[in-house]
Design a protein that fits this description.
- It is a single chain.
- By secondary structure, this protein is α/β, with parallel strands linked by helices.
- The protein has three domains: about 5-145 and about 270-340, FAD/NAD(P)-binding domain, CATH 3.50.50.60; about 160-265, FAD/NAD(P)-binding domain (3-Layer(bba) Sandwich), CATH 3.50.50; about 350-455, FAD/NAD-linked reductase, C-terminal dimerisation domain (Enolase-like, domain 1), CATH 3.30.390.30.
- The protein has helices at about 15-30, 45-50, 50-70, 85-110, 165, 185-195, 215-225, 280, 315-330, 360-365, 380-385, 415-425, 430-435, 445-455, and strands at about 5-15, 35, 115, 120-125, 125-130, 130-140, 145, 160, 175-180, 200, 230, 235-240, 245-250, 255-260, 260-265, 270, 305, 345, 350-355, 370-375, 390-400, 405-410.
- Helix 3 packs antiparallel against helix 4 and helix 3 (about 50-70) packs parallel to helix 6 (about 185-195).
- The radius of gyration is 24 Å and the shape is globular.
- The chain binds flavin-adenine dinucleotide and nicotinamide-adenine-dinucleotide.
- The site of flavin-adenine dinucleotide has 36 residues, from helix 1, strand 2, helix 2, helix 3 and helix 9.
Length: about 475
């Protein structure tokens, strides 16, 4: 076997949204870049097994649920609606292939050297992929995260599954138990419930989607229950009896058992640094085994940086991307910037829940005086026309200055609606600024304007 050493300005390990975006920005700024991933298809967790396939499944399953259960109310009748699961999964795979191919084409056009294989540090400025040796003054670790496994419920890929498997189940399980009422559990739980599974979500905390305000979660829980999901909160899973098809749990002294042919474990993700040789490079971890970084995403080793899911902060693709851009700019001597206080988060169920900044409950807990404006979609013309009246917008503003501190939305396309609030917040906007901004009629975004008006008790279409 021949060995070769190549030298670059920047090596990026991991081609997820953090890594590939970092490589793209660095190449734009004139750096000679190598981008390495274990997977042949670029795009990391997000494009291959995360954000994109899950959204494709959510979209297709929404069409199925509409055709089966809701179309008739609109005067549209289908005879014998049936599910072709393999075609539905193929559609999802096609979406993934299109996007990962697009990333590869962009990398090529930007003259980035793309290498497939597991990278390992052999020194602080050197990385090996098999017998290939790469050196660079700057190395960015963007190795992402992996599903957390429960010690008493090891993944087998068929009965005990992670999201990696749950985006690809070969048949619709009759009874699916989902452990964890976070983003993955609720999104993939919704997919399989729409496709016909009897789904039970078992959450350890007293509420699902725990990062959201209590009023949002109460309404959200009721809607999901109406869609057929069983939601069991405050329940600690203790084991699975495959023979009986029962997931066992405890709520205080109460013993519980939930029907399950398949168990999706969705209890979070862990930073992924396995086999990377961090100890050889001397890179330190923090108390949660994430790569420890400073406010400029520098590790303790000069020239080694880390971004995305493998460092502290929300494990979200858009956060990883912003990390990647900022690091590329810092390496190129520019003034990178990330506002980590304004990372929107969305759960893509129907309706969606979206949030940014400070919630009302968190404001109360921290003793921040706020005014809160709420507006229900039930009073929004477009929502009524579109049969999307579930949910509401709430805007949380500083009681003294009226500056918007946060927002939460439960509603159809909440993920799209939140972005205008993020923009207003980015520019330090007040609730009045948002309320005086013209919103097209009829759109669901008028509910955002009305919620902003409601902060000063001036909503026009509600009392
Ligand atoms: P990753 O995307 O995890 O990429 C890391 C890459 O590094 C991987 O491709 C891996 O193969 C590679 N790698 C690891 N070690 C090595 C090594 N030693 N050598 C070479 N390569 C290596 N986020 C959202 O914002 N919106 C969503 O809708 C959303 N939906 C999700 C749905 C699911 C089911 C899951 C699992 C996640 C979802 N996420 C979502 C989270 C999102 O996928 C992550 O936040 C994002 O992918 C993190 O990007 P990253 O670049 O840090 O790492
Ligand atoms: P999560 O942290 O969002 O939710 C995990 C849930 O599991 C929590 O509610 C937690 O209380 C619960 N839990 C933990 N241990 C438990 C136990 N033993 N029994 C019962 N419940 C338990 O994690 P996730 O849903 O696995 O997602 C992983 C990461 O991927 C998250 O950081 C998430 O932000 C990201 N992601 C984002 C999206 C999105 O943006 N729409 C979608 C999917 C995943």
């Amino acid at each position: 076997m021949s060995s070769s050493t190549q030298s670059f300005d920047l090596i990026v390990i991991g081609a997820g949204p953090g890594g590939y975006v970092c490589a793209f920005r660095a190449a734009q700024l004139g750096l000679k870049v190598a981008l390495i991933d274990k997977r042949a298809a670029l795009g990391g967790t997000c494009l291959n097994v995360g954000c994109i396939p899950s959204k494709a499944l959510l979209h297709s399953s929404e069409h199925y649920a509409f055709a089966k259960s809701h179309a008739a109310a609109h005067g549209i009748k289908f005879d014998g609606v049936s599910l072709d699961l393999s075609a539905l999964l193929k559609k999802k795979d096609d979406v993934v292939t299109k996007l990962t191919g697009g990333v590869a084409a962009l990398a090529k056009a930007r003259k980035i050297t793309v290498l497939t294989g597991a990278a390992k540090f052999t020194a602080a400025d050197t990385v090996a992929i098999g017998d290939q040796i790469l050196t660079a003054k700057n190395i960015v670790i963007a190795t992402g995260s992996a599903p957390v496994e429960l010690p008493f419920l090891k993944f087998d890929g068929a009965t005990i599954v992670s999201s990696d498997h749950a985006i690809n189940l070969p048949t619709v399980p009759k009874r699916l138990a989902v452990i964890g009422g976070g983003a993955i559990g609720l999104e993939l739980g919704s997919v399989w419930a729409r496709l016909g599974a009897e789904v039970t979500v078992v959450e350890f905390l007293p509420k699902i989607a725990a990062a959201y305000d209590d009023d949002i979660v109460r309404a959200f829980t009721r809607i999901l229950q109406k869609q057929g999901l069983k939601i069991e909160v405050g329940a600690k899973v203790t084991g699975y009896d495959a023979h009986a098809g029962l997931l066992h749990a405890e709520r205080g002294a109460e013993k519980l058992a939930f029907p399950a042919d398949v168990v999706l474990v969705a209890v979070g993700r862990r930073p992924y640094t396995d086999g990377l040789g961090l100890e050889i490079a001397g890179v330190a971890l923090d108390e949660k085994k994430r790569i420890a970084v400073d406010a400029h995403l520098r590790t303790n080793v000069p020239g080694i940086w880390a971004i995305g899911d493998v460092v502290a902060g929300p494990m979200l693709a858009h956060k990883a991307e912003e990390d990647g851009v900022a690091v590329a700019e810092w390496i190129a001597g520019q003034h990178g910037h990330v506002n980590w206080d304004l990372v929107p988060a969305i759960v893509y169920t129907d309706p969606e829940v979206a949030s940014v900044g400070l919630g009302e409950d968190a404001a109360k807990a921290r003793g921040v005086a706020v005014n809160v404006g709420k507006f229900n979609f039930a009073a929004n013309g477009r929502a009524i026309a579109a049969d999307a009246t579930d949910g509401f917008v709430k805007i949380i503003a500083d009681a003294q200055t009226d500056k918007i501190l946060g927002a939460q939305i439960l509603g159809h396309n909440a993920g799209e609606l939140i972005s205008e609030i993020v923009t207003h917040m980015e520019y330090g906007g007040s609730a009045e600024d948002l309320a005086r901004t013209i919103h097209a009629h009829p759109t669901m975004s008028e509910a955002v304007k009305e919620a902003a008006l409601a902060v000063s008790k001036s909503a026009l279409h509600a009392i």
